[in-house]
Amino acid sequence: MTTIIYIHGFNSSPLSQKATLMRSELNKLEKPVHFLCPGLPELPALAIAELSKLVEEALAGDVTLIGSSLGGFYATWLVEEYGCKAILINPAISPHLDLKNYIGTQINHHTKQTYKLTNRHLDQLEKLNVKKITVPRLFFLLQNTGDELLDWRVAKDRYSEAKQLIIEGGDHGFTNFKTYLPAILDFCGLV
What we know:
The chain is of the alpha/beta class. It is 35% helix and 21% strand. It has 7 helices and 8 strands. Strands 2-1-3-4-7-8 form a 6-stranded parallel sheet, sandwiched between helices. Strands 5-6 form a two-stranded antiparallel ribbon. The longest helix is centred in the N-terminal third of the chain and has 15 residues, at 44-58. The radius of gyration is 15 Å and the shape is globular. It starts with a strand and ends with a helix.
């Protein structure tokens, strides 16, 4: 059976618009698909342990990860570790550097839970940083040039040998996600 694991971004949750749209779209398919979208712990070591367990349990079948922002960073590590496929949506490339300005109290956009982002989080993220992509064909980059938080050119260069869809404009939240569901389902092997 095909398993799709959606990995949400920083301060997001399974309640995000993209996760909700993905779940809805998969429910319309005739082919049965196992969809997982865990609410991840804030500590990266705990998040990657939970995601690794889900991937390991699903590896008997076809597994595709869909990672948004920080979820794309986690998905990259998981692809390199397990050899599954991943769709990366405006992925974070170096969150251990990018999140330095966010150290302090954080609020999850959906759950409203608060926590403290610390150097411990950044150190754990740095340990998960993949230096070089080894199997580019396993990746599909969806990147908006209008991403207001991350420089889209960094992701374009990082995944230069992977399948890419660079979209003019847009934003970091990838609010145009629904438009690209057919391309996403195609890469997942579901159409």
